[in-house]
Amino acid sequence: MRMPFRLNLTLGLALVSMVILGAVFAPLLTAHDPILDADLMNSEMPPSWDHWFGTDSQGRDVFSRVLYGARVSLTIGIVAQAINSTIGIALGLSAGYWGGWWDDLVNGLTNLMLAIPSLVFALAIMAVLGPGVVSLLIALGLTNWSWSCRITRGAVMSLKSQGYVQAARTLGYGDIRIMLTQLLPNIVGPVLVMATLGIGEAVLAEAALSFLGLGIRPPAPSWGNMLTDAREAIRSVPWATIFPGLAVFVTVLGFNLLGDGVRDWLDPRMQVRA
Amino acid sequence: MSGPLLDIRGLTIGIPNRNGPPLQIVRDLSFDIMPGEIFGLVGESGSGKSASALALMGLNRRPLTTLKGQALYGGQDLLAMSRRSMRKLRGDRISMIFQEPMTALNPLARIGSQIAEMFVLHRGLSWSDARPKAVEALAAVQVPDPEGRARAYPHQLSGGLRQRVMIAVAMACRPDLLIADEPTTALDVTVQAEVLRLIRELCEREGTAVLLISHDLGVIAQMCQRVGVMANGRLLELRDAKALFTDPRHPYTQGLLAALPRLGSRAVEGRHRLADLDTAIDRNAPGFAETYLRPRGEAA
Questions:
Q1: Could you tell me if B74 and B128 are in contact, meaning their C-beta atoms sit under 8 angstroms apart?
Q2: In whole numbers, what is the pLDDT of chain B averaged over residues?
Q3: Is B95–A267 a contact, with Cβ atoms under 8 angstroms apart?
Q4: In angstroms, rounded to a whole number, what is the distance separating the alpha carbons of residues A122 and A224?
Q5: How far apart are the C-alpha atoms of A10 and A13, rounded to whole Å?
Q6: A167 to chain B: closest CA residue
Q7: Are B88 and A172 inside 8 Å of each other by CB?
Q8: Is the pLDDT of residue B293 over 60?
Q9: Which of A170, A186, A266 sits opposite B91 (nearest CB)?
Q10: Higher per-residue confidence, A89 vs B258
């Protein structure tokens, strides 16, 4: 029990902090400007000492673009998912606990959201708001809460018949207090795992929207538009797609492991006491 | 002592029925509890004991509804109170402990904070003031090493200790009434005796009245001053505990007592099987049909 829990947490923490540090200290880590250092004479160069990840079709350094792209992708991934989780948890918690007409309403809304492909919905919002980071956050943050809501609601419905929730009611706890102190800590596991998966999804959704020209406007780098830019040349210039793809992979993996590890770490029952 | 602490009159609980009269779970239940008294409520499963207790707390879940009746506590009717003022009473003036000590505590919160929360909630103390009081409360329920235990999580304690912690939580605000719904059913006999003694002593000291709900006649006999016998949602007999056990009046009570296995009773007809409740009840006794409606499982 002890080994895998530590492994998850440390590996997840290592990967996530690597990505975050890379994003924060991008200017110190690379001498190349991600946008301005377009050197057409040196385009499509394989990885070398000067360009660690090679250069893309316009001769820009892929390494520096991955680092600067991390800023955009991470911000969008984390913030959009934070919005999603907050909406989903608040709705799921109240609907599962109170039941009745409120539950019916929330449930209907959740089904509606699940029925509409979230990317199409996000596209519609982006079309109204126009491209840019803020509209991306709004579009992605409002369209992907249905799964967190579902999972929260389900967990709450099974938890609310537990003895300690009943006991809290007889001891004079108010509804909000019961939700926050009795229910929320006990559903943090699945919710956290959902959230970390959602970060990965948001990163990918940003990529899709950027591909359609509604996300981050080129030449500003994001992992999404880097992937879509280099997509056609994937056979001849594989490094221009492999490295941003790897960055997405490492980020999603890191957050998933971190979520798993934090869940185990938060649960006192999982702790082995010497 | 002046009047009763809690005076329940004509409590009727049921499930509303769109196409007819509501299905009644508890019918016209009336009894009172004096301050500091331990009042027992016995009856088989489904006789309406717990539903009545939850109705007093205003906590019955749909579709169970309180249809009629009053529960006067200090001049107020508990059954007609606003949700808000009822919530303030719960845990403060009227507390409750349950059968299942294994699940009645939040598994993710330390014991100390769960007790301290009562002071924060009902007394408006800050957390730092409430924590030492929580340790005191743990000491009061005779938990060894209260300071260490306050930092423990529920899963680190045994069932008996957890039930003590529940009692500490319920008694934290020195309530006027403690409703104990089968408090010892999940515990083994030795722990059961300790917990019962603890409840009795603690409540005596604090002047708290107890509504003890049980199906265990032994527990009731040991603890209570007065006892009500319930079956099928009706209160059949309400007597002094001693009188009830020596001279039961209602045929159901007589049957209930006759069904108790007795050590050394080896009558010829009793040798082969224990007397069960349905054969022990004298169905032809006068007044039986009006009060005890039907055996469990039989259609009305």
A1: no
A2: 83
A3: no
A4: 15
A5: 5
A6: B104
A7: yes
A8: no
A9: A170
A10: A89
Residue of B nearest to A189 (CA): B108
Å between B161 CA and nearest CA of chain A: 16
A174 closest CB neighbour out of B87, B100, B109: B87
Tell me which residue of B290, B63, B284, B97 sits closest to B185, measured CA to CA. B97
Please list the residues that pair with B235 across neighbouring strands. B230
Tell me the per-residue pLDDT of A63-111, one tens digit each, with 9 for 90 and over.
Answer: 888 888 888 888 888 899 999 999 999 999 999 998 889 999 999 999 9
What whole-number distance in Å separates Cα of residue B93 and Cα of residue B71?
A: 14
Q: Which residue has the tokens 């006068």?
A: B286
Q: Which residue of A has its CA nearest to B118?
A: A171
In degrees to the nearest 10, what's the CA dihedral of A133, A137, A140, A144?
160
Task: Read off the pLDDT of each residue in B145-158 and give the average, rounded to a whole number.
Answer: 90
Alpha helices in chain B (DSSP H): 49-57, 83-89, 111-123, 127-140, 146-150, 159-171, 189-206, 217-223, 241-246, 251-258, 277-280, 288-291
Question: Which of A171, A185, A269 shows the shortest C-beta gap to B118?
Answer: A171
Two tokens at A260? 């798993």
Q: Would you say B42 and B80 are in contact if contact means Cβ atoms under 8 Å apart?
A: no
pLDDT at B245: 86
Residue B276 in 3-state DSSP? coil
Say if the Cβ atoms of B57 and A164 lie within 8 Å: no
Distance CA A227, CA A208 (A): 10
CB < 8 Å from B in window 184-223 of A = 185-186
Report the alpha-carbon distance of residue A240 to residue A63 in Å, rounded. Answer: 9
Yes or no, beta carbons of B59 and A170 under 8 Å apart: yes
SS3 category, B73: strand
Domains and CATH numbers, chain A: 2-25+49-270 (1.10.3720.10)
SS3 B23: strand
Which runs of consecutive H residues, i.e. helices, occur in chain A?
Answer: 2-24, 26-29, 62-98, 100-115, 118-129, 133-141, 146-159, 163-170, 175-177, 184-211, 223-230, 239-266
Lookup result for tokens 């409540």 = B203
pLDDT above 60 for A185? yes
What predicted TM-score, i.e. pTM, was given to this entire model?
0.77
Contact A268 B118 (CB under 8 A): no
Q: Label the pairing between strands B234-240 and B226-231.
A: antiparallel
Quick one: pLDDT at residue B265? 57
Query: B60: how many CB neighbours lie within 10 A of its CB?
Result: 18
The 10s digit of each residue's pLDDT in B205-218 is 988 999 999 888 88
Strand pairing partners for A266? none
As a whole-number percent, the residues of chain A with pLDDT over 70 amount to 92
Q: What are the chain A neighbours of B156 within 8 Å (beta carbons)? A: 273
Select the more confidently predicted residue: A28 or B19. Answer: B19
Residues 115-174 of chain A with CB under 8 A from chain B are 162-164, 166-174
User: What's residue A88's pLDDT?
Assistant: 93
With CB atoms and an 8 Å threshold, state whether A163 touches B90. no
